[in-house]
Design brief:
Length: 161
């Protein structure tokens, strides 16, 4: 994608097709890269159910890492870890889980005398109903979903600080 942008190529996807627009004939090497990595390019540019494309997620990651590194003074690895955590939180916010009241999304049980069902989420997106003891495992599984979704668009933790 960077090579295409650097060559002045604008890319749009239409279904599974890639449409290219450029002011001048693009270099053959860049076109060969686009052909070879077509599936990845389509995946990166396709808008997900959360309304963001892989490029949107990459822009958020790069922005947050840059802010943490240059404004916050963090080493690059720590800045990327911080940016990744921001992306996970944003993915969770953009991909809420809803459940009907009366059943725990974690264990499937109803209200318990010693552990009442609690709503997690916001009024606008709806709630996930969970027992307090079920919440940590549920949140951990949601974070695994976020990491997998981000990884599918090329954002992953390479190094931990």
């Amino acid at each position: 994608m960077k090579a295409a942008r650097d060559a002045g190529i604008r890319i749009v996807i239409e279904g599974d097709a890639i449409l290219l627009d450029a002011d001048a004939a693009p270099p053959a090497a860049v076109l060969n890269l686009l052909v070879r990595h077509k599936a990845g390019v389509v995946e990166l540019l396709r808008t997900g159910s959360d309304g963001w494309s892989g490029e949107d997620w990459r822009a958020l990651f790069d922005e947050r890492a840059g802010i943490a590194e240059f404004d916050g003074g963090l080493p690059r690895g720590s800045a990327e870890a911080s940016a990744f955590a921001c992306c996970v939180a944003e993915w969770l916010n953009r991909n809420p889980v809803r459940s009907p009241p009366g059943r725990c999304l974690g264990c499937g049980a109803g209200h318990l005398a010693h552990d009442k069902l609690l709503p997690f989420g916001t009024e606008q997106t709806g709630h996930a109903w969970l027992h307090s003891r079920c919440w940590p495992a549920w949140l951990a599984s949601r974070k695994v979903e976020a990491v997998a979704a981000l990884s599918s668009v090329g954002i992953c933790m390479r190094t931990l600080p």
